[in-house]
Amino acid sequence: MTMRFLSVEGIRKSYRGHEILHGVDLKVEAGTILALLGQSGCGKTTLLRLIAGFEPADSGHITLDGRVLEEPGRHVPAERRHIGYVPQEGTLFPHLTVAGNIGFGLSSTQIRDGRVEEAMRLTGLGGLGARMPSQISGGQQQRTALARALAPRPSLILLDEPFNALDMALRRSVCADVVALLRTQGATAILVTHDPQEAFDSADLIAVMQSGRIAQCADPATLYNSPADIDVARMTGPVILLDGTLHGDHADTMLGRVTVQAGAPTSGRATILLRREQIVQAEPGQGIAATIHRRMFRGDHILAQVQAGGMEFETKLASNIPTSLTSLHISVQGAAMAYPVL
Amino acid sequence: MSNRLAFLRGQIRGRSIRSPLWLSLAILLPFGLVMLPIAYVVVRGMEAGPSVIVSDLLRPYTLHLLVNTLIIATSVPILAGIIAISAAWFTERCDLAYARFWRVATALPLAMPAYVSSFAWSSLGPAFQEMGGAILILTFYSVPLVYLPVCAALRGLDPSFEDVARSLGQGRVQIFRRVILPQIRPALAGAGLLVASHMLAEFGALSFLRVETFTTAIFEQYNAQFNNQTAALLSGVLMVLCMPIAFGEARLRRRRVARIGRGNARALPRLALGRVQILAQAGFMALTALSFGVPLVTLGFWLAEGTSAGHGIAQIGPALLGSLGYALPGAALTTLLAIPLVLATTYYRGHLARFADRLPYLVHGMPGIVVALAAVWFAIRYAGPLYQTSLLVLLVYAVLTLPLAQSSIRASAELVPRELDEIARSLGHAPFRAFVRATLPNLMPGIAAAASLVALQSMRELTATLLLAPAGTVTLATEFWNFTADRAYGAAAPFAAALVLLSGVPVTIFTLRSFRVDE
Amino acid sequence: MAPINRRTLLRSGATLGAALGSAAFIGRAHAEADTLTLYNGQHRATTEALVAAFTRETGIKVITRNAESPELASQIIEEGARSPADLFFSEQSPPIASLQEKGLLAPIDAATLKLIAPRFAAKDGTWIGVNARTRVITYNKKMIAEADLPKSILDFATPAFAGKFGYVKQDGFQEQIMAIVHIHGSTAALQWLKGVKQYGRSYNGNRIASTAVENGEVAMALSNNYYWYSLAREKGAANLNSALHSPLGADAGNIVNLSAAGTLKTSRNPQAAQRFLAFMLTPVAQQAMMATSAEYSVIDGISSPFNLPPLSRFTAPVTPADMGSATEAYALEREAGMI
To answer: Do chains C and A touch (3 or more CB pairs under 8 A)?
Structure first.
């Protein structure tokens, strides 16, 4: 049995009599980047704040690297946890320079030892040390916030939707920079986000949170291809849902026979879940007839609104199909998830 | 470079924008008004001739005045600042019991004119006179002026800063020193500078307490020599002393970083006081007793004791109406003059605007007699029909109180992005109409605060009212002066009490209202 | 009785005040033929009594502007030829003497000047004394025995009185300095001022100094006589800790000061103004003013309801006219580093 680096067990938290976290469990190995994915209000920020130690939990345990941070009757305050924290929008101290912000959590000895410069070099902020936060760009502000959290060499870094304030293009590149940096540092990190793409791009593991619980915690591919339930599936990308009847390793649906993933029930009625890219144009004479109602050119593919088998859904088609084409045949590729109808 | 400045100014991004014509014209009136006393001081001072100027300014007596003035103008803001921060910390960031009550109680000394409280204190004995007493009494008097803006700043803090600091291993004391204090420093220092300029101009209280400063010396010069140039020279020195205050305030503002759009999402955490609760309650009781209780009890004593009590009662009605009749239009006029000054510097750039915005702070430290005589000098020569009319009095009130209005309105203006105005323009409104429809409604909290502060201050004004109001004008302040000049404390007490009561109403409403906004 | 008198006066004053207050926003009342504008630095109660009696007798209305005398003098000088003031009634003689020295005052009718002794008027007849009061030493009976009181105010400038007395740099003090200059010379006056600065406590008003003595804060104070009497009226003379003392003979502690009045050259109503000045010296006016403040009448045959010692007791050989606007006193105070 491997020693868990961060272990969160049975954490509960209420505000004004309203329970936000209903017993959360989470294990994170050292050197892992975990994304905490969920819609706003699911409790992911609250969980992050409890791990950081800003507030005590109502019940449950948190241990980090063998050290108990939280258990009934014991609460180690944030300032003694040695956990780095990058809040939404960076939140740089407006009265300090970039270097002043980065050195904020360092002792004067550590500052003399060049830890600020080191953190600035790592984060590509060289030469900006004397600037005020208002004088640097949004991406630089975000990297400063990261450098500030990294400088004291924390055992864990928490990032609370840190890229929210950035525009889309910048967001992807800053996110990639940050992840690359965390990986070269071998850091253990938890990244809170509501953007599945961001979670896929950055994380080794993704924990999907729904109404105060962890619904599923798995690597990105597992999560995407084998979501634990329909809600998790929706959280991680667009879905196509079909009614079906299970027959062993396949199901009969309005789109014809669909292979079902191993481990699913083998009989009875079920909801069959497909991803958009599983619908493909069939060879002539095969598949089912479909009509294209609307199409959007997306460069590498065409997003098409398609009617087939008495239902309408969105699907991705190859971008080279002729614009005059309005009817075609489609078929389902790969195995689908099946959830029994209750 | 312009880009960098634009960033610092918060709302403006990228380019420098000239103010619309109506605004440029609208700042000319306050600018001209404030220039008058400055011109008067320069003209009268120059009449003395260079040798007199040098010998007058280099007298040991001038040094004595300078030392006293600087001691008062530095120690009072510092001590008041310390008390105000502690009080604000307890009412805003701790689970202080009866916090609502203590907020009002801490703000109430604002309703007590300094000359009433110093008169009350000095009658308790010599221990409360001279420098020590003056610092003590004026500190208590000044606490609310710092307390209210510091409270506002504390409530406006984003709690994430404290989270970040904690995650970086900082304890409570360090967080206060390294995170909270630097963020409330602009509010704190701005209020401190305002208190300092009040101290430069303070006359009534210091004369009761027998402390000689430039302002008391200026009055003394007028008493001894009737219109001599030495008074003008000393006023010139006062103006120079005001310069760091005027420009220091501007620098502080430039460092302020406007945060638009996001309020703090989470409520600020409050510290549990536990056993310190009782000590805190005792501290607030002591503060209230010292700053408001002592003068109030003394007033009550006068009301009850003096055999002359009741003689002036018939005047109360007219005096009350007189005070309101000047203070309310004065507040309206001053606010109206202050709005363009604030807009021109908050949203636009321009050297004249910035200069015009600073000037009132220079004059704010000048004693009322100098501004009043400047008004006499100007009005009798160039605006005869205006002389000794109510309008002239109101204009002098404006000159004396503009900075109070500017500071309050600016606090609101900095929260209102200029884009609002631009959106209104894009929807087809002409510049002035755009301002009235889009920006002005959002400035109302600041305007209301400005008007109440100016009204409070104007109700206490004495010298300009006496010299410039139409003959026969009575206000609570003139009647209080009249009866104390006759030694009839008992007869004077009802007027002081009415002044305190009348001032107490806006202070209470203002305090409750400003706290309710964020709760 | 005085209090009844006063209450009536205040009531009529209140009505007047209300009327003017409501007119305040219409604008300044323009001088009409039968209206005078009086800049009044004298205690308001005194002047109100006077003005009410004048209007009753002549039908001439008087618009009064009340403020401190030196401020009003400064205001009239700033106003220059355009001053709306017809009359100036000053609490002390130096402010009005400063207008005299600047040539702003008109000569007063000879008939009026004849009503008072020459020592109570300007030498060029441009102002008249209206009330006389005396400079006194107020002392606290519990803090200093009568026998230990100074025989001359010059004694204050000696270490024996260090910390025992208070003084006020305005309102009577400069007249006292001028008296020392007249009796003993400028050098002696400068020496005295240096001593007073060194050994005395400075107060910012005669009534504050008088109260300080009454409250036992300081043993003695140089003051004007009427502050003590007003305190005595408020609390009862028998209940007071303080009493009055004046050195005898040709001492500067023994001087008579005046409140004084004059009319401006620029008055638009000189005849009415002269009538007002003459009226100030009539027995009825003098009697009315005597009721409100413990001062002496400048004309013969009027007695004060206050228990005042006779004016003839104050025998310093110097008159208010000798003191002028006290320019020299100001120069000496500056030289002594006092102001």
So the answer is: no
Q: Which of A55, A69, A93 to mutate to test the interface with B (most CBs of B within 10 A)?
A: A93
With b meaning 16 or more CB within 10 Å and e meaning fewer, what string describes B393-420?
Answer: bbbbbbbbbbbbbbbbbbbbbbbbbbeb
Q: Which chains does A contact via 3+ CB–CB distances below 8 A?
A: B
Q: Are B245 and B365 in contact (CB under 8 A)?
A: yes
For chain A, helix, strand, coil in percent to 5 are 25, 40, 35
Measured between alpha carbons, how far is C96 from C73 in angstroms, rounded to an integer? Answer: 7
Judged against a pLDDT cut of 80, whether residue C2 lies above it is answered with: no
Asked if B471 and C170 come within 8 Å (Cβ–Cβ), the reply is no
pLDDT digits (tens, 9 = 90+) for B428-479: 677 788 788 878 888 888 898 889 889 988 998 888 898 899 888 889 998 8
Q: Which residues from A are below 8 Å from B169, CB to CB?
A: 79-80, 82, 105, 152
Residue A205 to residue A222: CA distance in whole angstroms: 10
Residue with tokens 């959360």: A24
The interface pTM score, or ipTM, of the predicted complex is 0.82
Q: Is B366 on the interface with C (CB under 8 A)?
A: no
- Spatial distance between the Cα atoms of B127 and B125, rounded to a whole number of angstroms: 5
Distance CA A181, CA C215 (A): 79
Spatial separation of the C-alpha atoms in residues B333 and B11, rounded to whole Å: 28
Q: Kindly list the residues from chain A whose CB atom is less than 8 angstroms away from the CB atom of residue B166.
A: 52-54, 77-79
CB atoms under 10 Å from CB of B457, counted, come to 22
Minimal-distance CA residue of chain C relative to B463 = C67
pLDDT of residue B126: 66
Pick from B148, B131, B153, B135: nearest CA to B77: B135
| Contact status of C331 with chain B (Cβ, < 8 Å) | no
Cα B225 to Cα B441, C169, C339: the distances in Å are 51, 12, 11
From C321, C294, C276, select the one nearest C207 (Cα to Cα): C294
For residue C173 the two structure tokens come to: 């003090």
Distance CA B319, CA B492 (A): 12
Order across the sheet with A279-281: list the strands.
A279-281, A327-332, A288-297, A301-308, A311-318
Does the distance separating the beta carbons of B474 and C23 come in below 8 Å? no
Over residues B320-347, mean pLDDT: 92
Q: What is the pLDDT of residues C173-191, one digit of tens each?
A: 988 999 999 999 999 999 9
CA distance B251 to chain A (A): 14
Taking the C-alpha atoms of residue C175 and residue C325, their distance in angstroms, rounded to an integer, is 9
Q: Which residues pair with C88 in a beta bridge?
A: C39, C262
Mutate which of B66, B128, B223, B229 to test chain C, going by most C C-beta atoms within 10 A? B223
10 Å CB burial of residue B374 (0-12, 13-18, 19+) is: buried
Calculate ∠ Cα C162-C166-C171, nearest 5°. Answer: 145
Q: C157 to chain B nearest CA, in Å?
A: 20
In this complex, does chain C touch chain B, defined as having at least 3 beta-carbon pairs under 8 Å apart? yes
- Residue B470 has its nearest CB partner, among C24, C75, C203, at C24
Chains that touch C (3 or more CB pairs under 8 A): B
For the stretch A137-193, pLDDT in tens is: 888 888 899 899 999 889 899 998 888 777 777 888 888 888 888 898 888 999 999
Query: Which two three-digit tokens encode residue B20?
Result: 């619309």
Nearest Cα to Cα of residue B184 among A95, A145, A102: A95
pTM score, two decimals? 0.78
**In chain C, which among 159-198 make CB contacts under 8 A with chain B?**
169-171, 174
Tallying the residues shown for chain A, one arrives at 342
